Protein backbone atom coordinates (compact mmCIF):
# COMPACT_ATOMS: atom_id res chain seq x y z
CA UNK A 1 0.00 0.00 0.00
CA UNK A 2 1.25 3.48 -0.91
CA UNK A 3 0.59 5.10 2.45
CA UNK A 4 1.05 8.70 1.29
CA UNK A 5 -1.40 8.15 -1.56
CA UNK A 6 -3.89 6.58 0.83
CA UNK A 7 -3.48 9.52 3.23
CA UNK A 8 -4.12 11.97 0.40
CA UNK A 9 -7.27 10.11 -0.63
CA UNK A 10 -8.49 9.97 2.97
CA UNK A 11 -7.93 13.72 3.42
CA UNK A 12 -9.77 14.46 0.16
CA UNK A 13 -12.69 12.26 1.22
CA UNK A 14 -12.89 13.89 4.65
CA UNK A 15 -12.76 17.42 3.20
CA UNK A 16 -15.19 16.69 0.34
CA UNK A 17 -17.74 14.88 2.49
CA UNK A 18 -18.05 11.84 0.24
CA UNK A 19 -15.92 9.31 -1.60
CA UNK A 20 -17.51 10.22 -4.93
CA UNK A 21 -16.77 13.93 -4.42
CA UNK A 22 -13.16 13.07 -3.56
CA UNK A 23 -12.91 10.92 -6.69
CA UNK A 24 -14.18 13.80 -8.86
CA UNK A 25 -11.86 16.28 -7.20
CA UNK A 26 -8.78 14.10 -7.71
CA UNK A 27 -9.76 12.62 -11.07
CA UNK A 28 -9.46 9.12 -9.59
CA UNK A 29 -11.96 6.27 -10.07
CA UNK A 30 -14.42 5.97 -7.18
CA UNK A 31 -13.58 2.28 -6.75
CA UNK A 32 -9.91 3.16 -6.29
CA UNK A 33 -10.66 5.81 -3.66
CA UNK A 34 -12.93 3.45 -1.74
CA UNK A 35 -10.43 0.59 -1.88
CA UNK A 36 -7.45 2.69 -0.81
CA UNK A 37 -9.30 4.23 2.15
CA UNK A 38 -10.49 0.79 3.26
CA UNK A 39 -6.93 -0.54 3.01
CA UNK A 40 -5.74 2.34 5.16
CA UNK A 41 -8.36 1.55 7.80
CA UNK A 42 -7.33 -2.12 7.81
CA UNK A 43 -3.68 -1.12 8.13
CA UNK A 44 -4.50 1.09 11.14
CA UNK A 45 -6.94 -1.47 12.54
CA UNK A 46 -9.54 1.23 13.17
CA UNK A 47 -12.42 2.92 11.39
CA UNK A 48 -11.70 6.46 10.23
CA UNK A 49 -14.98 7.23 8.45
CA UNK A 50 -18.61 6.53 9.19
CA UNK A 51 -20.20 5.81 5.81
CA UNK A 52 -23.86 6.55 5.06
CA UNK A 53 -25.89 6.98 1.90
CA UNK A 54 -25.87 10.77 2.38
CA UNK A 55 -22.48 11.83 3.75
CA UNK A 56 -19.25 10.68 5.34
CA UNK A 57 -18.49 11.66 8.91
CA UNK A 58 -15.25 11.27 10.81
CA UNK A 59 -14.90 8.99 13.78
CA UNK A 60 -12.94 10.20 16.81
CA UNK A 61 -9.92 8.34 15.48
CA UNK A 62 -10.58 9.86 12.06
CA UNK A 63 -10.49 13.42 13.44
CA UNK A 64 -7.10 12.85 15.07
CA UNK A 65 -5.69 11.03 12.06
CA UNK A 66 -6.91 13.75 9.65
CA UNK A 67 -4.93 16.41 11.51
CA UNK A 68 -1.85 14.19 11.49
CA UNK A 69 -2.23 13.44 7.77
CA UNK A 70 -2.45 17.12 6.94
CA UNK A 71 0.77 17.82 8.85
CA UNK A 72 2.58 14.90 7.22
CA UNK A 73 1.45 15.76 3.70
CA UNK A 74 2.38 19.40 4.21
CA UNK A 75 5.83 18.39 5.43
CA UNK A 76 6.28 16.10 2.43
CA UNK A 77 5.14 18.83 0.06
CA UNK A 78 7.48 21.29 1.74
CA UNK A 79 10.39 18.87 1.36
CA UNK A 80 9.57 18.34 -2.31
CA UNK A 81 9.35 22.07 -2.96
CA UNK A 82 12.71 22.57 -1.27
CA UNK A 83 14.29 19.79 -3.32
CA UNK A 84 12.75 21.21 -6.48
CA UNK A 85 14.23 24.63 -5.83
CA UNK A 86 10.97 26.47 -5.10
CA UNK A 87 12.54 28.04 -2.00
CA UNK A 88 15.73 29.12 -3.75
CA UNK A 89 14.48 30.58 -7.05
CA UNK A 90 11.10 31.38 -8.64
CA UNK A 91 10.16 28.20 -10.49
CA UNK A 92 7.22 25.84 -10.98
CA UNK A 93 3.49 26.37 -11.46
CA UNK A 94 1.50 29.03 -9.61
CA UNK A 95 -2.29 28.59 -9.38
CA UNK A 96 -4.30 31.81 -9.04
CA UNK A 97 -8.02 32.52 -8.94
CA UNK A 98 -9.83 35.85 -9.43
CA UNK A 99 -13.33 37.18 -10.17
CA UNK A 100 -14.19 37.01 -13.87
CA UNK A 101 -14.38 40.66 -14.91
CA UNK A 102 -11.78 41.96 -12.46
CA UNK A 103 -9.48 39.12 -13.44
CA UNK A 104 -9.79 39.86 -17.15
CA UNK A 105 -9.39 43.63 -16.79
CA UNK A 106 -6.73 43.86 -14.09
CA UNK A 107 -5.23 40.54 -13.04
CA UNK A 108 -4.50 39.11 -16.49
CA UNK A 109 -2.34 42.09 -17.59
CA UNK A 110 -0.29 41.74 -14.39
CA UNK A 111 0.03 37.99 -14.90
CA UNK A 112 1.29 38.36 -18.46
CA UNK A 113 3.89 40.91 -17.33
CA UNK A 114 4.98 38.58 -14.53
CA UNK A 115 5.42 35.68 -16.96
CA UNK A 116 7.68 37.83 -19.11
CA UNK A 117 9.78 38.75 -16.06
CA UNK A 118 9.94 35.20 -14.61
CA UNK A 119 10.37 32.68 -17.44
CA UNK A 120 10.78 29.71 -15.05
CA UNK A 121 7.29 30.17 -13.55
CA UNK A 122 4.08 28.93 -15.18
CA UNK A 123 0.68 30.25 -14.09
CA UNK A 124 -2.75 28.66 -14.16
CA UNK A 125 -5.27 31.51 -13.83
CA UNK A 126 -8.86 30.49 -13.08
CA UNK A 127 -11.50 33.20 -13.43
CA UNK A 128 -14.76 32.63 -11.59
CA UNK A 129 -17.11 34.46 -9.25
CA UNK A 130 -17.58 31.45 -6.96
CA UNK A 131 -15.54 31.62 -3.74
CA UNK A 132 -13.21 28.62 -3.71
CA UNK A 133 -11.39 27.08 -0.76
CA UNK A 134 -7.67 27.55 -1.27
CA UNK A 135 -6.51 24.41 0.51
CA UNK A 136 -9.22 22.11 -0.83
CA UNK A 137 -8.85 23.31 -4.43
CA UNK A 138 -5.04 23.54 -4.27
CA UNK A 139 -5.01 27.27 -5.02
CA UNK A 140 -1.84 29.24 -4.24
CA UNK A 141 -3.36 32.71 -4.34
CA UNK A 142 -6.82 34.25 -4.61
CA UNK A 143 -7.81 37.80 -5.46
CA UNK A 144 -10.88 38.54 -3.35
CA UNK A 145 -13.27 41.48 -3.55
CA UNK A 146 -15.29 42.17 -0.40
CA UNK A 147 -14.96 41.87 3.34
CA UNK A 148 -13.04 38.78 4.37
CA UNK A 149 -14.30 36.44 7.09
CA UNK A 150 -11.96 35.76 9.97
CA UNK A 151 -9.64 32.95 9.02
CA UNK A 152 -6.05 31.78 9.06
CA UNK A 153 -5.57 33.19 5.58
CA UNK A 154 -3.06 36.00 5.04
CA UNK A 155 -4.45 39.02 3.17
CA UNK A 156 -2.62 41.87 1.47
CA UNK A 157 -4.77 44.86 0.57
CA UNK A 158 -4.34 46.42 -2.88
CA UNK A 159 -7.21 48.90 -2.96
CA UNK A 160 -10.97 49.21 -2.79
CA UNK A 161 -13.98 49.24 -5.11
CA UNK A 162 -17.16 51.31 -4.92
CA UNK A 163 -20.80 50.29 -5.43
CA UNK A 164 -22.09 52.70 -8.08
CA UNK A 165 -25.62 53.39 -9.31
CA UNK A 166 -25.58 54.64 -12.89
CA UNK A 167 -27.74 55.20 -15.93
CA UNK A 168 -27.41 56.50 -19.46
CA UNK A 169 -27.67 60.27 -20.05
CA UNK A 170 -30.73 59.60 -22.25
CA UNK A 171 -32.52 57.75 -19.44
CA UNK A 172 -31.71 60.50 -16.93
CA UNK A 173 -32.89 63.16 -19.36
CA UNK A 174 -36.21 61.39 -19.76
CA UNK A 175 -36.81 60.33 -16.16
CA UNK A 176 -34.74 62.69 -14.06
CA UNK A 177 -31.80 61.89 -11.81
CA UNK A 178 -32.63 60.59 -8.31
CA UNK A 179 -31.67 62.99 -5.54
CA UNK A 180 -31.96 60.47 -2.69
CA UNK A 181 -32.00 56.65 -2.61
CA UNK A 182 -35.75 56.69 -1.91
CA UNK A 183 -36.30 58.23 -5.35
CA UNK A 184 -35.27 54.90 -6.88
CA UNK A 185 -38.69 53.49 -6.00
CA UNK A 186 -40.11 55.36 -9.01
CA UNK A 187 -37.36 54.34 -11.45
CA UNK A 188 -36.90 51.32 -13.68
CA UNK A 189 -33.92 49.31 -12.45
CA UNK A 190 -31.73 46.60 -13.91
CA UNK A 191 -30.64 44.03 -11.34
CA UNK A 192 -28.36 41.05 -11.59
CA UNK A 193 -27.54 38.00 -9.55
CA UNK A 194 -24.37 38.09 -7.50
CA UNK A 195 -24.34 41.63 -6.08
CA UNK A 196 -26.70 41.50 -3.13
CA UNK A 197 -30.47 41.36 -3.17
CA UNK A 198 -32.49 41.64 -6.36
CA UNK A 199 -35.29 43.39 -4.45
CA UNK A 200 -33.38 46.05 -2.48
CA UNK A 201 -30.23 48.12 -2.78
CA UNK A 202 -28.45 49.24 0.38
CA UNK A 203 -27.15 52.78 0.84
CA UNK A 204 -25.31 54.64 3.58
CA UNK A 205 -26.90 57.59 5.36
CA UNK A 206 -26.33 58.98 8.85
CA UNK A 207 -23.73 56.26 9.52
CA UNK A 208 -26.33 53.53 8.99
CA UNK A 209 -27.18 51.14 6.16
CA UNK A 210 -30.54 51.85 4.56
CA UNK A 211 -32.21 49.22 2.33
CA UNK A 212 -34.23 50.74 -0.49
CA UNK A 213 -36.74 48.66 -2.51
CA UNK A 214 -36.14 48.76 -6.26
CA UNK A 215 -38.30 47.73 -9.20
CA UNK A 216 -36.48 45.19 -11.36
CA UNK A 217 -37.66 46.11 -14.84
CA UNK A 218 -34.97 43.74 -16.10
CA UNK A 219 -33.12 40.96 -14.30
CA UNK A 220 -29.96 39.47 -15.76
CA UNK A 221 -27.27 37.15 -14.48
CA UNK A 222 -24.09 39.12 -15.28
CA UNK A 223 -22.83 42.62 -14.63
CA UNK A 224 -21.86 42.98 -18.29
CA UNK A 225 -25.46 42.42 -19.38
CA UNK A 226 -26.73 44.91 -16.80
CA UNK A 227 -24.22 47.52 -18.02
CA UNK A 228 -25.16 46.95 -21.66
CA UNK A 229 -28.86 47.34 -20.86
CA UNK A 230 -28.25 50.51 -18.85
CA UNK A 231 -26.16 51.95 -21.69
CA UNK A 232 -29.09 51.70 -24.11
CA UNK A 233 -31.47 53.35 -21.62
CA UNK A 234 -33.45 50.45 -20.14
CA UNK A 235 -33.02 51.81 -16.61
CA UNK A 236 -30.64 52.31 -13.73
CA UNK A 237 -28.25 49.64 -12.56
CA UNK A 238 -25.84 49.15 -9.70
CA UNK A 239 -22.40 47.71 -10.37
CA UNK A 240 -18.85 47.82 -9.07
CA UNK A 241 -16.90 50.92 -10.03
CA UNK A 242 -14.12 49.19 -11.98
CA UNK A 243 -16.72 47.62 -14.31
CA UNK A 244 -17.89 50.96 -15.74
CA UNK A 245 -14.75 53.10 -15.89
CA UNK A 246 -14.66 53.07 -19.69
CA UNK A 247 -18.41 53.72 -20.01
CA UNK A 248 -18.30 56.67 -17.59
CA UNK A 249 -15.22 58.18 -19.24
CA UNK A 250 -16.84 57.91 -22.66
CA UNK A 251 -20.10 59.46 -21.42
CA UNK A 252 -22.17 56.33 -22.08
CA UNK A 253 -23.09 56.07 -18.38
CA UNK A 254 -23.43 58.63 -15.63
CA UNK A 255 -23.06 57.85 -11.88
CA UNK A 256 -25.78 59.07 -9.50
CA UNK A 257 -26.29 59.05 -5.72
CA UNK A 258 -22.53 59.08 -5.12
CA UNK A 259 -22.98 60.75 -1.71
CA UNK A 260 -25.01 57.75 -0.54
CA UNK A 261 -22.69 54.94 -1.61
CA UNK A 262 -22.01 52.29 1.06
CA UNK A 263 -18.52 51.67 2.35
CA UNK A 264 -16.25 50.50 -0.50
CA UNK A 265 -15.28 46.85 -0.69
CA UNK A 266 -11.61 46.04 -0.14
CA UNK A 267 -9.57 44.10 -2.70
CA UNK A 268 -7.08 41.62 -1.24
CA UNK A 269 -4.48 39.11 -2.33
CA UNK A 270 -5.18 36.08 -0.14
CA UNK A 271 -2.99 33.02 0.50
CA UNK A 272 -2.65 30.32 3.14
CA UNK A 273 0.57 31.75 4.55
CA UNK A 274 1.48 28.65 6.53
CA UNK A 275 5.19 27.95 6.79
CA UNK A 276 7.72 29.30 4.33
CA UNK A 277 6.28 30.76 1.16
CA UNK A 278 7.59 29.32 -2.10
CA UNK A 279 9.74 31.89 -3.87
CA UNK A 280 7.38 31.86 -6.87
CA UNK A 281 4.50 33.02 -4.63
CA UNK A 282 6.61 35.58 -2.80
CA UNK A 283 7.82 36.91 -6.15
CA UNK A 284 4.27 37.22 -7.47
CA UNK A 285 3.06 39.00 -4.33
CA UNK A 286 5.93 41.50 -4.57
CA UNK A 287 5.34 41.95 -8.31
CA UNK A 288 1.54 42.09 -8.39
CA UNK A 289 0.83 44.07 -5.23
CA UNK A 290 2.09 47.50 -6.33
CA UNK A 291 0.86 47.03 -9.90
CA UNK A 292 -2.68 46.18 -8.82
CA UNK A 293 -2.65 49.14 -6.40
CA UNK A 294 -1.69 51.42 -9.26
CA UNK A 295 -4.32 49.98 -11.59
CA UNK A 296 -7.08 50.36 -8.99
CA UNK A 297 -5.97 53.90 -8.18
CA UNK A 298 -6.31 54.76 -11.87
CA UNK A 299 -9.63 52.92 -12.32
CA UNK A 300 -11.75 55.97 -11.57
CA UNK A 301 -13.21 58.95 -13.38
From TrEMBL:
Keywords: DNA-binding, Transcription, Transcription regulation. Residues 1-59 form the HTH lysR-type domain. InterPro entries: LysR-type_TF_proteobact-type (IPR058163), LysR_HTH_N (IPR000847), LysR_subst-bd (IPR005119), WH-like_DNA-bd_sf (IPR036388), WH_DNA-bd_sf (IPR036390). It holds the Pfam family HTH_1. Belongs to the LysR transcriptional regulatory family. PANTHER family: HTH-TYPE TRANSCRIPTIONAL ACTIVATOR TTDR-RELATED (PTHR30537:SF5), HTH-TYPE TRANSCRIPTIONAL REGULATOR (PTHR30537). This is LysR family transcriptional regulator. It comes from Mesorhizobium opportunistum.
Amino acid sequence: MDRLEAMSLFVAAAESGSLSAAARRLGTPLATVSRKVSELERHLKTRLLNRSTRRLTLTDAGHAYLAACRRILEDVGDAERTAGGEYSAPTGELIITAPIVFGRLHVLPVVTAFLAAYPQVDIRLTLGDRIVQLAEDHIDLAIRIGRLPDSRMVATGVGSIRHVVCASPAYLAGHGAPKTPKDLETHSCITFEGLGSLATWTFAADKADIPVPVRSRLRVNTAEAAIDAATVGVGMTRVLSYQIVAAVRSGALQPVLEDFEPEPWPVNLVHAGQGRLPVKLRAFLDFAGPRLRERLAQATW
